[in-house]
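During the practical work, I worked with a single protein chain and the tokens that describe its fold, as given directly below.
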Amino acid sequence: MAETTLIAAVQMNSTAVVADNLATAARLLRDARDAGAVLAALPENFAIMGARDTDKLAFAEPFGRGPIQDWLAETAQKLGLWIVAGTVPVAVDGDPGRVWAANLVFDASGAQVARYDKIHLFDVDVPSASGERYRESKTIAQGAADGFTVIDTPAGKLGLSVCYDVRFPELYRQLAALGAEILCVPAAFTAKTGEAHWEILLRARAIENQCYVIASGETGTHAGGRQTWGHSMVVGPWGEVLACVDAGEGVATAAVDVVALHALRAGFPNLSQRRIGV
């Protein structure tokens, strides 16, 4: 692995039309590749953001095959690019009313090399005058509480998560303990919660685990009127925002230097100085 590699967070305004979303994703992934990125992360729900939570059920695929997964494999191979596929609606055996929110990773040959199922589901009432209310558990199956996923990539050891997970630091501590050097957070953060907490949470996860964070988000207004925050970014292990796309479609790219990361950990060894929960 080169000492420094480029990674990219892809920001989208996904619609209810899968074909349109895949075309947009292809264009932005090509932009990431052309900028020199070896790994690019798509946002949560990149392939389908319907007017209703149940809309995604019509596009559920068996794990390992289906139009979305086939497209991801073909695109990764065509571009020679590692792709973190935000979330893909993977069918739940015996439960047609729910899907797995599966964060899948494809390597540059097009092989599917990792899967993480979202653990923490967004069942909340957002404090706002609009009365926003979300119940992901009605249409999404909860991933296993010990389903920690860390894989080797050309950019470094990548730990997987999804959106609402970012509010649960114990998950990221486990990923760091498993060797993660980059934490991936694809998301569809609401505009209200994103404005208040998105950057703070991402920078906190980077600082406390001395990891890079790549956070790819949905942005703007979607079918049904849902509004998402955007601000896709790459954060460094000191907590600095290295690149950010505020609003609209785009790609945030930044260099990852794992040699410098480990030098930081050696000189500022807060991970090895833990006394609680070790």
